[in-house]
Recover the amino acids of this structure.
């Protein structure tokens, strides 16, 4: 029972002396909280299904300031950022957590500043409660701070994070996106890289009244990388935060979203899809808080798991006593393609208001034999038939992406990582 | 075993994940054993605690059934009562077991576990603690350390138990915890239906009930375990009431075995209970049907665990949760499919009904699947009693309270129909009593 109150700072050993000598009061408080809690292990209910043991294996240094420009250019090309539908979009590129001006193109209508200069933390994050946010708060070096002025349309903006390292490093970018009243923006986050690194971003999103943010995250981190990302979103009256996470990469990834419907008639969508193989672990965790009446939340998450991959879905919908007339819907579906794949799902409703409409559903299964038979009886080879069915399963989720460019890019990335399904054909 | 339990108590923390809150329990201050004051087996209804009879009266149970439920001994040769054997456990001590002769003829052993330890040590040794290990959780360890009595059932090969078996638990003495232990073993091809009823009189202080129930079903065996739990829930200000921290688990060891849990939970200040099935045998079946009602300041965190180990195992979970007053009710259920459980199938449905705007209803399913050939489905909804339904009933002359009762009974029908007839009637009435004062 003492485990909770013990000093668990030994779990922070991989970070060595990086957490020492912090002076800024916000960072100091976060470091203190982190030393008390340590990095969470699986006895912590929120981390029941995702182990961070991976992090404890090697020291994680601060990344070097220099990087190989040619390699970065190659990565950008590989991601389709130099050619195709994304080529012309404004972009903020970060390499190993630092802003890379040479690769960035600033957007019009949108104010951008850098965390490295402002050093200001937003009010939405909870470093006291969430150890990985505390870690970010303690070690954040840079990040994009994006603001769309009232009534402006910001168009599509790319937020690209690239890891590129030979040594084992960690970087902790601190981003924020603010939409003033009536503003509109599509933010496409791309997370990618090469080498062994921990990418630990925190993003604070504030959506003003009648503002509309579409946020698509394409996680295609390197094979040896870990991505532990946390997003805090707050939505004002009649505002909309529409997010989609496509998880493909990394040996360990967790996309944690805390969305708060703070005023009436606000809407939140937290959708996602994951396709994992090998020994990947992919975790989608969300907490949607209905803190005002008449709000709507929607969540659909689909997982396709092959090889020894493990998918995790934890989705909580919290309905406060004042949040009458809440309309909440949550759906989690998983497709297992291999004998060794695993899905762990924990959809959760916590409801304190009586006049609400809340439901959730979860299904888990293999490919439907009847559907396979149908296709095969029409001359489609088995491997192809399987691909068609997997595609159809994920396509329904991708259809929830409201932005055309983002949807096209996600579909392309998904198609590229497809051969994964052949293993058990 | 007791020593093992004590050593585990020292090591194990109490579970942190349950959504319940209560002041810390002083385990040193509890009375772990209180011999019942009454002489075993009241001879007639006049000797039964009048308070208990009043509850029965409210429930509308016919006199002869009251006598039976209260554990009144049956004069030899009487046949007018429906056949049902009863074991009454008062304050952890088994006071009476009826119908023993009839059961013995069929080869069924039904006796207090204290007697079973004496008369059938080989059976007890083989099975006790084999489903719920001593150190399973804090309260199971506590029970293993201090339990004094409980019921023991053994149904030998191929025997269909000729009547329903029933245990009636009651906490009578002040300051007492109840720590009974139930063990039911059903051999190949045999079957039994077992009912459990619980009550406790009103007390100001909180009392602890930490029972352990173990079920073992061998090949083609079937066990149906029904509970109507009506421990004292505390008064409308949340004072007093029973802490019901119970570990119930069944092992489907043989192929095609079946364990079915049905529970109607209306009482207790706090309920913390997850009747579970370990589905080992190929094609074994686990079922869980639950109605949990909380009112005033009651808290319930209840659900089930279905562990699919064998091939083609199936489980069904139907949980209905009703919250009223300022109560909090949580469904927490685990469905785990292990790699060898090809063809495993689970269906889960959880529905919550909120009555009033000061209560909470929560649903927390855990789904862990490690087999691609398994199919798991989960559905949950939360709603309130619709104005339309209420209006319809009121228009036809029902009082508001009767209308709510009717609607609630309809909401719970899927579960209530799983109960044996006599219990179903009682359970319906209990629902209505528990919701008294929650509307209007």
């Amino acid at each position: 029972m003492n485990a909770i109150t013990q000093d668990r700072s030994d779990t922070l050993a991989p970070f060595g002396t990086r957490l020492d000598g912090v002076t800024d009061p916000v960072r100091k408080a976060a470091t203190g909280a982190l030393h008390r809690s340590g990095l969470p292990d699986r006895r912590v209910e929120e981390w029941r299904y995702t182990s961070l043991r991976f992090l404890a294996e090697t020291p994680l240094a601060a990344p070097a300031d220099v990087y190989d420009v040619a390699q970065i250019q190659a990565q950008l090309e590989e991601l389709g950022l130099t050619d195709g539908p994304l080529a012309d979009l404004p972009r903020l590129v970060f390499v190993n957590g630092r802003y890379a001006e040479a690769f960035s193109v600033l957007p019009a209508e949108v104010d951008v500043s850098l965390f490295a200069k402002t050093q200001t933390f937003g009010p939405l994050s909870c470093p006291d409660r969430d150890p990985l946010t505390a870690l970010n708060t303690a070690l954040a070096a840079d990040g994009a701070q994006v603001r769309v002025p009232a009534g402006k349309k910001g168009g599509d903006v790319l937020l690209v994070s690239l890891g590129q390292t030979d040594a084992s490093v960690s970087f902790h970018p601190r981003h924020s996106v603010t939409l003033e009243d009536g503003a509109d923006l599509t933010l496409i986050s791309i997370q990618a890289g090469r080498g062994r690194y921990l990418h630990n971003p925190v993003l604070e999103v504030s959506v003003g009244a009648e503002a509309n943010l579409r946020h698509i995250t394409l996680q295609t981190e390197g094979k040896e990388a870990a991505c532990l990302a946390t997003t805090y979103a707050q939505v004002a009256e009649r505002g909309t935060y529409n997010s989609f996470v496509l998880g493909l990469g990394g040996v360990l990834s967790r996309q944690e979203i805390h969305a708060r419907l703070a005023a009436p008639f606000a809407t939140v969508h937290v959708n996602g899809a994951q396709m994992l193989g090998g020994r990947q672990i992919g975790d989608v965790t969300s907490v949607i808080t209905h803190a005002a009446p008449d709000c709507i939340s929607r969540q659909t998450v689909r997982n396709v798991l092959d090889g020894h991959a493990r998918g995790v879905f934890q989705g909580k919908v919290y309905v406060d006593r004042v949040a009458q007339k809440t309309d909440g819907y949550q759906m989690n579906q998983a497709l297992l393609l291999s004998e060794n794949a695993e899905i762990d799902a924990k959809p959760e409703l916590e409801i304190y208001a009586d006049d609400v409409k809340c439901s959730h559903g979860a299904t888990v299964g293999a490919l439907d034999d009847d559907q396979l038979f149908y296709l095969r009886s029409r001359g489609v080879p088995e491997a192809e038939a399987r691909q068609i069915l997997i595609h159809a399963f994920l396509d329904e989720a991708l259809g929830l992406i409201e932005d055309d460019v983002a949807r096209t890019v996600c579909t392309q990335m998904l198609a590229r990582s497809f051969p994964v399904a052949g293993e058990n054909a | 075993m007791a020593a093992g339990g004590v050593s585990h108590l020292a090591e194990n923390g109490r579970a942190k994940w349950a959504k319940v809150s209560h002041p810390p329990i002083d385990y040193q201050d509890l009375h772990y054993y209180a011999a019942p004051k009454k002489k075993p087996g009241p001879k007639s209804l006049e000797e039964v605690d009048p308070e208990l009879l009043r509850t029965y009266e409210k429930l509308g149970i016919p006199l002869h059934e009251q006598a039976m439920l209260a554990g009144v001994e049956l004069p030899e040769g009487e046949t007018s009562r429906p056949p049902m054997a009863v074991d009454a456990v008062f304050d952890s001590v088994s006071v009476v077991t009826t119908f023993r002769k009839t059961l013995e003829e069929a080869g069924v052993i039904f006796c207090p576990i204290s007697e079973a330890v004496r008369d059938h040590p080989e059976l007890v040794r083989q099975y006790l603690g084999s489903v719920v290990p001593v150190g399973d959780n804090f309260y199971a360890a506590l029970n293993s350390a201090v339990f004094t009595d409980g019921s023991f059932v053994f149904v030998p090969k191929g025997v269909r138990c000729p009547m329903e078996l029933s245990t009636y638990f009651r906490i009578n003495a002040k300051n007492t915890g109840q720590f009974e232990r139930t063990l039911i073993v059903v051999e190949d091809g045999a079957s039994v239906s077992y009912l459990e009823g619980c009550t406790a009189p009103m007390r100001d202080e909180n009392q602890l009930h930490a029972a352990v129930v173990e079920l073992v079903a061998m090949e083609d065996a079937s066990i149906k375990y029904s509970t109507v739990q009506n421990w004292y829930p505390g008064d409308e200000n949340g004072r007093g009431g029973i802490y019901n921290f119970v570990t119930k688990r069944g092992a489907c060891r043989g192929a095609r075995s079946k364990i079915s849990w049905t529970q109607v939970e209306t009482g207790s200040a706090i309920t913390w209970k997850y009747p579970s099935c370990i589905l080992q045998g190929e094609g074994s079946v686990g079922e869980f049907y639950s109605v949990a009602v909380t009112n005033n300041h009651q808290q319930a965190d209840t659900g089930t665990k279905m562990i699919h180990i064998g091939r083609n195992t199936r489980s069904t979970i139907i949980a209905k949760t009703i919250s009223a007053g300022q109560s909090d009710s949580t469904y927490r259920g685990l469905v785990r499919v292990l790699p060898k459980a090809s063809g495993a199938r689970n269906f889960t449905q959880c529905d919550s009904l909120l009555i009033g705007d000061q209560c909470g209803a929560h649903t927390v399913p855990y789904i862990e699947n490690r087999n691609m050939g398994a199919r798991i489905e989960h559905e949950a909804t939360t709603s309130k009693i619709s104005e339309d339904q209420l209006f319809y009933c009121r228009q036809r002359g029902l009082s508001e309270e009767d209308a709510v009762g009717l609607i609630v009974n309809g909401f719970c029908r899927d579960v209530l129909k799983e109960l044996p007839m006599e219990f179903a009637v009682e359970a319906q009435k209990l629902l209505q009593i528990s919701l008294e004062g929650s509307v209007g």
